[in-house]
Amino acid sequence: MRQMHELTRRRFTQSAAIASMGTLLSACATVGTRSSTASGCTPLAPVNVDAGRVIRTVAGLRPYRASGFVVRREQLGDKALVHNYGHGGGGITLSWGTSRLATNLGLPGHSGPVAVLGAGAVGLTTARQVQEAGFPVTIYAKALPPHTTSNIAGGQIETAYLYKDDSVTPEWRAQLLAAMDYSWRRWQIMVGDEYGIRWLPTYEETQLSGSNPMDSYYPATKVLSRAEHPFPLDTVVRFETMYVETGHFLRQTMRDISIAGGKFEVRDFPSAQAIASLPETLVFNCTGLGSRDLFQDADLHPLKGQLAILLPQPEVRYALSGGPGYMFPRADGIILGGTAERDVWDPNPDPATISRLIARHKAFFSGFRCMA
Ligand SMILES: Cc1cc2nc3c(=O)[nH]c(=O)nc-3n(C[C@H](O)[C@H](O)[C@H](O)COP(=O)(O)OP(=O)(O)OC[C@H]3O[C@@H](n4cnc5c(N)ncnc54)[C@H](O)[C@@H]3O)c2cc1C
User: Fold this and answer.
1) What is the pLDDT of residue 208?
2) Measured distance CA(268)–CA(41) in Å, rounded
3) Which whole number is the average pLDDT over 227-251?
4) Is there an atom of ligand 1 within 6 Å of 310 CB?
5) To 10 degrees, what angle do helices 246-259 and 121-132 make?
6) Is the CB of 142 under 6 A from ligand 1?
7) Cα 263 to ligand 1 centroid, rounded to whole Å
8) Angle at 319 between CA 315 and CA 323, to 5 degrees
9) Which among 309, 312, 307 has a CA at the least distance from the CA of 338?
10) pLDDT exceeding 70 applies to what percent of the chain?
């Protein structure tokens, strides 16, 4: 069974090592020697990494909780309030699934319009499922796409920086699996150009030591020998997963919500008391990191991630996790990432970190080995 490596996104799903971050996930391993880039002796096209090919840089604050996302119902005055926030680095992946759990908690027995707070991936997927169940919905958010954290996300369907292994309960683990199960199926039926979602083979630096309950979601998994991959890495596993061009998906989902009669209202809620003025009696809280102040959730921390996006390279039809960080090829650019800084609130990319990110990926992709 495939295992997690400390340098991969998946390893950091459960990692206690988050506090040690601040720069890149890993150093690039240096086991390869002969570069294959010039001779083309690998079927995988190397990414052409160069500072001159960067088309934009972005940063976002992942809503990280060591004890995992919150999906819970409570009473707020005369309203039913269902929380759905705190997805760390897995909020695109899990959005459909935790929204399913949340609507299952909120909708039975309810009648009348519904409010959703937040217009990131979690708020929009909650709103769609409210509509699919036949209820009118209004989304209230202080920022709409493209100005949400969800728009920043790389969009790999795989969780990362989601929780700390010794901080979660068995009940929460059951919620995680239920959420993943629904998400995994829901993303599949949306694959295609309409929502900007596609399957890609993914190469992940790994260690063979233990198992992960998520492994069953990643088909066609194979541990590769060094002869079977060109990367300057020791142990590599290949599997298939989906990639979401997040801006595209969020735009299309807003369109779906509007076509089905949903309303959007830009509004900043300074406190939980402000929610009391809403006309709806059922409210879903999908405010991500905003829940820290709104509901005094001190367990919620920003985990800053930075990305450099290169000119698109359509010939790159695989993704990479680990090694120099990660690389996801999308129609809107090649996403280079792999940084995490806890409790950093500055939402702007830092030029020095971006330079290191580019340098590591450049060294990595120019170090491809020839395959036999
Ligand atoms: C660099 C980076 C890469 C990532 N890559 C991936 C990936 O590959 N795969 C993956 O699954 N996840 C990834 N993530 C994580 C993902 O982006 C988050 O988990 C996800 O965006 C959380 O979604 P959300 O809807 O909860 O929050 P947001 O997108 O932050 O949306 C929150 C909404 O609530 C609103 N709001 C907040 N406070 C208030 C308030 N007081 N009043 C009114 N409205 C409010 C905001 O305006 C916004 O509309 C990545 C994140 C980063 C930063």
Assistant:
1) 61
2) 55
3) 94
4) no
5) 30
6) yes
7) 20
8) 125
9) 307
10) 87
Residue nearest to atom 4 of ligand 1 (CA): 153
The number of the ligand 1 atom at minimal distance from the alpha carbon of 269 is 42
Per-residue confidence (pLDDT) for residue 230, from 0 to 100: 92
Residue-wise pLDDT tens digits, 97-121:
999 999 999 999 999 999 999 999 9
Distance CA 50, CA 174 (A): 44
| Residue range 260-288, pLDDT digits in tens | 999 999 999 999 999 999 999 999 999 99
Pocket lining: 240 vs ligand 1, CB cutoff 6 Å = no
Residues β-bridged to residue 284: 82, 116
Over 80: is that where the pLDDT of 130 sits?
Answer: yes
Residue 92 Cα to ligand 1 midpoint, Å, equals 8
Q: Say yes or no: CB of residue 154 within 6 Å of ligand 1.
A: yes
pLDDT computed for residue 371 by the predictor: 75
Would you say the CB of residue 233 lies under 6 angstroms from ligand 1?
no
Q: Is 286 in the pocket of ligand 1 (CB under 6 A)?
A: yes
